[in-house]
Write a structure and sequence with these properties.
binds 5-O-phosphono-beta-D-ribofuranosylamine; Rossmann fold; alpha/beta; 7 helices
Length: 219
Protein backbone atom coordinates (compact mmCIF):
# COMPACT_ATOMS: atom_id res chain seq x y z
CA UNK A 1 0.00 0.00 0.00
CA UNK A 2 1.40 3.39 -1.01
CA UNK A 3 1.50 6.05 1.71
CA UNK A 4 -0.74 9.01 1.01
CA UNK A 5 1.17 12.29 1.13
CA UNK A 6 -0.07 15.82 1.75
CA UNK A 7 2.29 18.59 0.62
CA UNK A 8 2.19 21.99 2.34
CA UNK A 9 3.42 24.93 0.26
CA UNK A 10 3.48 28.73 0.30
CA UNK A 11 4.97 29.65 -3.05
CA UNK A 12 6.80 28.44 -6.11
CA UNK A 13 6.43 24.71 -5.51
CA UNK A 14 9.53 23.35 -7.24
CA UNK A 15 10.17 20.80 -4.48
CA UNK A 16 6.47 19.92 -4.57
CA UNK A 17 6.84 19.18 -8.29
CA UNK A 18 9.92 17.03 -7.65
CA UNK A 19 7.84 14.95 -5.21
CA UNK A 20 4.84 14.77 -7.56
CA UNK A 21 7.06 13.61 -10.42
CA UNK A 22 8.91 11.02 -8.32
CA UNK A 23 5.60 9.66 -7.01
CA UNK A 24 4.47 8.94 -10.57
CA UNK A 25 6.90 6.01 -10.76
CA UNK A 26 4.96 2.77 -10.29
CA UNK A 27 7.34 1.37 -7.67
CA UNK A 28 7.47 4.55 -5.56
CA UNK A 29 6.08 3.88 -2.07
CA UNK A 30 4.09 7.13 -1.80
CA UNK A 31 1.42 8.98 -3.77
CA UNK A 32 0.52 12.66 -3.53
CA UNK A 33 -3.06 12.91 -2.24
CA UNK A 34 -3.35 16.67 -1.79
CA UNK A 35 -1.43 19.95 -1.95
CA UNK A 36 -2.39 22.66 0.54
CA UNK A 37 -1.22 26.26 0.27
CA UNK A 38 -1.67 28.91 2.94
CA UNK A 39 -1.50 31.55 0.20
CA UNK A 40 -3.93 31.83 -2.71
CA UNK A 41 -2.64 32.45 -6.24
CA UNK A 42 0.91 31.19 -5.75
CA UNK A 43 2.61 29.48 -8.72
CA UNK A 44 2.71 26.16 -6.87
CA UNK A 45 -1.09 25.90 -6.84
CA UNK A 46 -1.29 26.25 -10.59
CA UNK A 47 1.50 23.73 -11.06
CA UNK A 48 -0.20 21.19 -8.78
CA UNK A 49 -3.51 21.54 -10.61
CA UNK A 50 -1.81 21.19 -13.99
CA UNK A 51 -0.24 18.00 -12.68
CA UNK A 52 -3.72 16.71 -11.86
CA UNK A 53 -3.28 16.90 -8.09
CA UNK A 54 -6.03 18.12 -5.77
CA UNK A 55 -4.88 21.57 -4.59
CA UNK A 56 -6.56 23.46 -1.74
CA UNK A 57 -6.03 26.91 -0.25
CA UNK A 58 -6.25 27.25 3.52
CA UNK A 59 -5.52 30.95 3.85
CA UNK A 60 -3.93 31.70 7.21
CA UNK A 61 -5.36 35.21 7.06
CA UNK A 62 -8.83 33.77 7.56
CA UNK A 63 -8.02 32.42 11.03
CA UNK A 64 -7.72 34.26 14.33
CA UNK A 65 -5.07 32.00 15.84
CA UNK A 66 -2.27 29.67 14.75
CA UNK A 67 -4.19 26.77 16.35
CA UNK A 68 -7.34 27.53 14.33
CA UNK A 69 -5.33 27.58 11.11
CA UNK A 70 -3.60 24.30 12.03
CA UNK A 71 -6.97 22.71 12.82
CA UNK A 72 -8.22 23.62 9.35
CA UNK A 73 -5.07 22.20 7.74
CA UNK A 74 -5.43 19.05 9.80
CA UNK A 75 -9.06 18.64 8.70
CA UNK A 76 -8.03 18.95 5.03
CA UNK A 77 -5.24 16.40 5.50
CA UNK A 78 -7.57 13.93 7.21
CA UNK A 79 -10.24 14.45 4.56
CA UNK A 80 -7.65 13.44 1.96
CA UNK A 81 -6.62 10.40 4.00
CA UNK A 82 -3.05 11.60 4.40
CA UNK A 83 -0.45 9.39 6.13
CA UNK A 84 2.61 11.61 5.67
CA UNK A 85 3.03 15.39 5.42
CA UNK A 86 5.81 17.07 3.43
CA UNK A 87 6.45 20.76 3.97
CA UNK A 88 7.92 22.21 0.78
CA UNK A 89 8.61 25.91 1.08
CA UNK A 90 5.79 26.21 3.64
CA UNK A 91 6.33 29.52 5.40
CA UNK A 92 4.17 29.05 8.50
CA UNK A 93 5.33 28.03 11.94
CA UNK A 94 3.02 25.34 13.30
CA UNK A 95 1.65 25.01 16.80
CA UNK A 96 3.55 22.56 18.98
CA UNK A 97 0.39 20.45 19.21
CA UNK A 98 0.26 20.00 15.42
CA UNK A 99 3.97 19.21 15.20
CA UNK A 100 3.64 16.69 18.04
CA UNK A 101 0.64 14.97 16.48
CA UNK A 102 2.52 14.45 13.21
CA UNK A 103 5.88 13.63 14.79
CA UNK A 104 7.65 11.01 12.71
CA UNK A 105 5.13 11.52 9.91
CA UNK A 106 5.99 15.07 8.79
CA UNK A 107 9.06 16.10 6.78
CA UNK A 108 10.57 19.46 5.83
CA UNK A 109 13.39 20.44 3.50
CA UNK A 110 15.73 23.24 4.50
CA UNK A 111 18.45 24.69 2.25
CA UNK A 112 21.38 24.29 4.63
CA UNK A 113 23.36 21.50 6.19
CA UNK A 114 21.55 21.50 9.52
CA UNK A 115 22.15 22.13 12.35
CA UNK A 116 23.99 25.06 10.74
CA UNK A 117 22.00 28.03 9.47
CA UNK A 118 18.48 27.49 10.69
CA UNK A 119 15.74 29.98 9.90
CA UNK A 120 15.63 32.60 7.19
CA UNK A 121 18.15 33.18 4.35
CA UNK A 122 20.33 30.17 5.15
CA UNK A 123 22.26 30.56 1.88
CA UNK A 124 23.33 34.09 2.88
CA UNK A 125 24.15 32.80 6.36
CA UNK A 126 26.42 30.18 4.74
CA UNK A 127 28.19 32.83 2.63
CA UNK A 128 28.60 35.10 5.66
CA UNK A 129 30.13 32.22 7.63
CA UNK A 130 32.57 31.48 4.78
CA UNK A 131 31.82 27.76 4.63
CA UNK A 132 33.19 25.82 1.64
CA UNK A 133 30.42 23.25 1.58
CA UNK A 134 26.72 24.05 1.73
CA UNK A 135 23.70 21.91 1.04
CA UNK A 136 20.24 20.89 2.10
CA UNK A 137 18.63 18.72 4.73
CA UNK A 138 15.41 16.73 4.93
CA UNK A 139 14.34 16.34 8.54
CA UNK A 140 11.34 15.31 10.57
CA UNK A 141 9.44 18.33 11.81
CA UNK A 142 9.37 19.10 15.52
CA UNK A 143 8.02 22.13 17.35
CA UNK A 144 11.46 23.78 17.21
CA UNK A 145 12.13 25.41 13.83
CA UNK A 146 14.54 23.48 11.56
CA UNK A 147 15.72 21.39 14.50
CA UNK A 148 14.09 17.99 13.97
CA UNK A 149 15.86 14.65 13.44
CA UNK A 150 17.77 14.48 10.14
CA UNK A 151 16.71 11.96 7.50
CA UNK A 152 19.02 12.85 4.60
CA UNK A 153 21.44 15.52 3.44
CA UNK A 154 22.99 16.67 0.18
CA UNK A 155 26.16 18.73 -0.04
CA UNK A 156 27.18 21.17 -2.75
CA UNK A 157 30.33 23.28 -3.05
CA UNK A 158 30.36 26.99 -2.31
CA UNK A 159 32.19 28.63 -5.23
CA UNK A 160 34.34 31.76 -4.90
CA UNK A 161 32.02 34.03 -6.88
CA UNK A 162 28.79 32.77 -5.36
CA UNK A 163 26.00 35.13 -4.42
CA UNK A 164 23.10 34.00 -2.25
CA UNK A 165 21.16 33.54 -5.50
CA UNK A 166 23.70 31.35 -7.31
CA UNK A 167 24.25 29.27 -4.20
CA UNK A 168 20.50 28.92 -3.66
CA UNK A 169 20.12 27.70 -7.24
CA UNK A 170 22.84 25.06 -6.81
CA UNK A 171 21.31 23.91 -3.53
CA UNK A 172 17.83 23.82 -5.06
CA UNK A 173 19.00 21.42 -7.77
CA UNK A 174 20.24 19.12 -5.01
CA UNK A 175 16.96 19.57 -3.09
CA UNK A 176 15.01 18.23 -6.05
CA UNK A 177 17.04 15.00 -5.90
CA UNK A 178 17.18 14.68 -2.14
CA UNK A 179 13.55 15.23 -1.17
CA UNK A 180 12.15 12.38 -3.31
CA UNK A 181 14.86 10.05 -1.98
CA UNK A 182 14.14 11.00 1.63
CA UNK A 183 10.39 10.61 1.20
CA UNK A 184 10.99 7.23 -0.40
CA UNK A 185 13.00 6.08 2.63
CA UNK A 186 10.36 7.27 5.09
CA UNK A 187 7.38 5.97 3.12
CA UNK A 188 9.03 2.57 2.72
CA UNK A 189 9.73 2.39 6.47
CA UNK A 190 13.48 2.42 5.85
CA UNK A 191 14.07 5.66 7.80
CA UNK A 192 12.36 5.59 11.17
CA UNK A 193 12.32 7.99 14.10
CA UNK A 194 13.66 6.25 17.19
CA UNK A 195 14.72 7.96 20.40
CA UNK A 196 14.96 11.37 18.78
CA UNK A 197 17.18 10.23 15.89
CA UNK A 198 16.53 8.69 12.51
CA UNK A 199 17.53 5.07 12.17
CA UNK A 200 18.09 3.71 8.67
CA UNK A 201 16.88 0.16 8.17
CA UNK A 202 17.30 -2.48 5.54
CA UNK A 203 19.65 -2.31 2.60
CA UNK A 204 19.65 1.46 2.25
CA UNK A 205 22.16 2.63 -0.36
CA UNK A 206 24.32 5.48 0.91
CA UNK A 207 23.46 7.48 -2.21
CA UNK A 208 19.87 7.50 -0.99
CA UNK A 209 20.51 9.57 2.11
CA UNK A 210 23.84 11.31 1.59
CA UNK A 211 24.63 13.13 -1.63
CA UNK A 212 28.22 14.32 -1.80
CA UNK A 213 29.71 17.23 -3.77
CA UNK A 214 31.23 14.74 -6.22
CA UNK A 215 27.85 13.12 -6.81
CA UNK A 216 26.19 16.49 -7.28
CA UNK A 217 28.95 18.04 -9.41
CA UNK A 218 27.53 19.49 -12.56
CA UNK A 219 24.27 20.40 -10.80
C1 LIG B 1 13.41 25.67 -0.86
O1 LIG B 1 14.70 26.19 -0.96
C2 LIG B 1 13.22 24.95 0.44
O2 LIG B 1 14.36 24.30 0.89
C3 LIG B 1 12.86 26.07 1.38
O3 LIG B 1 12.05 26.93 0.64
C4 LIG B 1 12.37 26.79 -0.75
C5 LIG B 1 11.08 26.43 -1.43
O4 LIG B 1 11.22 26.41 -2.83
N1 LIG B 1 12.23 25.54 2.58
P1 LIG B 1 10.09 25.72 -3.71
O5 LIG B 1 8.78 26.40 -3.34
O6 LIG B 1 10.08 24.27 -3.39
O7 LIG B 1 10.47 26.00 -5.12
Amino acid sequence: MKKRVGILISGRGSNMMALIEAARAPGYPAEVAVVISNRPDVPGMQRAREAGIKALVVDHKGFATREDFDTAVEAALREAGVDLVCQAGFMRIQSAAFADRWLGRQLNIHPSLLPSFRGLRPQQQALDAGVRIAGCTVHFVTAELDAGPIVAQAAVPVLPDDTAETLAERILTAEHKLYPLALQLVAAGEAVLEGGRVVLRGSVNQQDWLISPAASAGC
